[in-house]
Specification:
Blueprint (H helix, E strand, L loop, with lengths): L2 E7 L3 H11 L7 E7 L5 E7 L2 H10 L6 E7 L14 E2 L5 E6 L5 H10 L11 H10 L4 H11 L4 E7 L6 E6 L4 E4 L3 E5 L11 E4 L5 E4 L4 E4 L5 E2 L4 E2 L15 H7 L1 H11 L5 H8 L7 E6 L1 H18 L4 E5 H4 L10 E7 L5 H12 L3 E6 L5 H5 L2 E4 L12 H20 L5 H12 L1 H9 L2 H9 L6 E6 L2 H17 L2 E6 L15 E7 L5 H12 L4 E6 L10 E5 L9 H18 L18
Parallel strand pairs: 16-17, 16-18, 18-19, 19-20, 21-22, 21-23, 23-24, 24-25
Antiparallel strand pairs: 1-4, 1-10, 2-3, 2-4, 5-6, 6-7, 7-8, 8-12, 9-10, 9-11, 11-15, 12-13, 13-14
The protein binds 2-deoxy-2-amino glucitol-6-phosphate.
The site of 2-deoxy-2-amino glucitol-6-phosphate has 15 residues, from helix 9.
Length: 605
């Protein structure tokens, strides 16, 4: 959701910024722009609605260069996608240029006051108020100005700021939105995310809320809001540039699906003896809690929903709730110091999930996060953090991060069961072995890619596709449905099989596909009878599961999954579901990695 990149150094900033913006495309955007500090002491600002290719076209007709610049991909919140609403925004006097990620909640009041003083606004955005306010306050010290502006802003922001009067100084500040500072031999960077700077450096500082970074060509300094200097550690990113590139695949999503055996192995290893996550899982005294609440958004919520079944079955924990973070944050949930709140987030920056975590902490709950991005807000603010080893996930539709979240949740549930005295060590060993067998079984499903692709190619014409399952298969049906709708734009819903007859079955007609998931042996008969009910009303069924006895015919197709313990079967079902969605969308020729209206990291409410 909006991407920021800025550079000050000895090289030409323009290609560096454009390349950095390309690495941030996955975040979702509808317009882009760049401001460069020219040698003659002016800014060149080029902004364009649409894709980065359009901005590059504009730059080809309006070439520019300079040693310092800021760039931005905008995901519209206030004001339509347009050239004028794109960032960077520059103040009336052309002195200060700003890129902003986030939402300024009090922008109307600030705007009215500035307009009353004669300031003219060129856009409908909340962000422009930052540039105008900065020019209004500027008295010769850009850092002091940024502090003054930040103190007036309500809402969330990550800012990159340049001033024509201070030619080699790039300022960054943030609150509730990510910003990293990259340090390289030829110059320094600000960016929304690590992939934007990886070609130049793997040395980064993670900026915390209300911290200011002052970047020059050969130095980076940090200050608090009282302008006192701060020391911040320089951290080494372990992701390589290859991790953040497509590596010959047509889409990041397919590459990330195919990476799952490896990242699952790495993640499971991290939770086995000697692994970093293992040490932390062992430290958690689950017996100290009388309630577990899992909160997250989207797919991460679905991972939490799967975990509920597992925690219940393995640990017999008395109270386990799973709640959407966007709801939890506004509920008056009964939680206290005896509640463990598990927060799941790939990015670690989802605004609703952060708010839910903070709400839980304010009530005294202990927070345990499962996060993919090191240095992210949730990773830093939660009491305990387990890191998934998924590597950078670029496609908006999550695949490998989801799978690694499940893997850590399995390991957590197994350990909790032992700690609670519900599981003998021999069973623990068997179950850990089952989890450790998942990467090979995932590989076996990836080996069926051609058959899944072939079936998916027959599904592009469906107007609606339903997903059904029972028990843990229902939990993973939710993820299958979300995956399909976000990238294929086909209407889709997931239902517990038993709910069909309570309403949904009225939607079943000739042109409907029902994907039935069945890995729970004791419920196989029930889900097959649901399948028969919809087939007799004209639907076709795709059965995904480990039941070899189902015989395919012209109304029933099957994807057979390897045998695995029922509780861990979501990790196998989801691979077939991801491939199915991917190939439906690919056959429709859609922009799979950047689906319309969606952003990778939802940093606004
Ligand atoms: C998944 O494919 C989605 N793009 C989305 O639902 C995502 O899982 C959700 O926005 C939560 O993101 P997070 O894991 O970064 O918090």
């Amino acid at each position: 959701m909006c991407g920021i990149i800025g550079y000050v150094g000895v090289k030409d900033a323009v290609p560096i910024i454009i390349e950095g913006l390309k690495k941030l495309e996955y975040r979702g955007y509808d317009s882009a722009g760049i401001a460069v500090y020219r040698d003659d002491g002016f800014f060149d600002v080029v902004k364009q609605k649409g894709r980065l290719a359009a901005l590059e076209g504009r730059l080809a007709n309006h070439p520019t260069q300079g040693f310092m610049g800021i760039g931005h991909t905008r995901w519209a919140t206030h004001g339509e996608p347009s050239d004028a609403n794109s960032h960077p925004h520059v103040g009336n006097r052309g002195k200060i240029a700003v890129v902003h990620n986030g939402i300024i909640e009090n922008y109307k009041q600030l705007k009215e006051r500035l307009e009353a003083k004669g300031v003219c606004f060129a856009s409908q955005t909340d962000s422009e108020v930052i540039a105008q306010l900065a020019e209004y306050y500027y008295k010769g010290d850009i850092m002091e100005t940024v502090v003054k502006v930040a103190n007036r802003l309500e809402g969330s922001y990550a800012l990159g700021v340049m001033c024509v009067d201070e030619p080699a100084t790039l300022i960054a500040v943030k609150k509730d939105n990510p910003l990293i500072i990259g340090v390289s031999k030829h110059g320094n960077f600000i960016a929304s995310d690590v992939p934007a700077v990886l070609r130049h450096t793997n040395q980064v500082h993670y900026l915390d809320d209300k911290e200011i970074a002052v970047l020059k060509m050969d130095s980076v300094q940090f200050f608090n809001m009282d302008q006192e200097p701060l020391q911040k550690p320089l951290e080494r990113v372990t992701w390589s540039l290859d991790d953040a590139e497509k590596g010959g695949y047509p889409h990041f999503m397919l590459k990330e699906i195919m990476e799952q055996p490896k990242v699952l192995r790495d993640t499971i290893q991290s939770a086995i003896n000697g692994g970093k996550n293992k040490a932390l899982i062992d430290r958690l005294d689950v017996a100290a809690f009388d309630k577990i609440v899992i909160t997250a958004c989207g797919s991460a919520y679905n991972a939490g929903f799967v975990a509920k079944y597992i925690l219940e079955t393995l640990c017999g924990f008395p109270s386990i709730e799973v709640e959407l973070a966007s709801e939890f944050r506004y509920r008056d949930a009964v939680i206290n110091g005896k509640t463990l709140v598990i927060v799941i987030s790939q990015s670690g920056e989802t605004a609703d999930t952060i708010a839910a975590m903070r709400e839980a902490k304010s009530k005294g709950a202990v927070t345990l996060s499962i996060v993919n991005v090191v240095g992210s807000t949730i990773a830093k603010e939660s009491d305990f953090c387990l890191f998934t080893a998924a590597g950078p996930e670029i496609a908006v539709a999550t695949t490998k991060a989801f799978s690694t979240q499940l893997a850590l949740l399995y390991m957590l549930a197994i350990r909790f069961a032992v700690r609670l005295g519900k599981m003998p060590q021999a069973t623990e060993r068997d179950l850990v072995e089952e989890v450790a067998s998942l990467p090979d079984k995932v590989e076996a499903i990836l080996g069926q890619i051609d058959a899944i692709q072939k079936f998916a190619s027959t599904c592009v014409g469906y107007k609606s596709i339903f997903f059904i399952g029972r028990n843990i298969d229902y939990a993973i049906a939710l993820e299958g449905s979300l995956k399909l709708k976000e990238i294929s734009y086909i209407h889709s819903e997931a239902y517990a099989g038993g709910e069909l007859k309570h309403g949904t079955i009225s939607l079943i007609e000739e042109d409907t596909l029902v994907v039935a998931i069945s890995n729970c042996k004791r419920l196989h008969g029930k889900i097959m009878s649901n399948a028969e009910q919809v087939i007799s009303r004209g639907a076709k069924v795709l059965l995904i599961g480990n039941h070899s006895e189902a015989t395919p015919d012209e109304r029933l197709s099957t994807i057979l999954l390897p045998e695995v313990h029922e509780l861990f079967s979501p990790s196998l079902s989801v691979i077939a579901l991801q491939l199915f969605s991917y190939y439906v969308a690919a056959n429709k020729g859609l922009d799979i990695d950047k689906p319309r209206n969606l952003a990778k990291s939802v940093t606004v409410e």
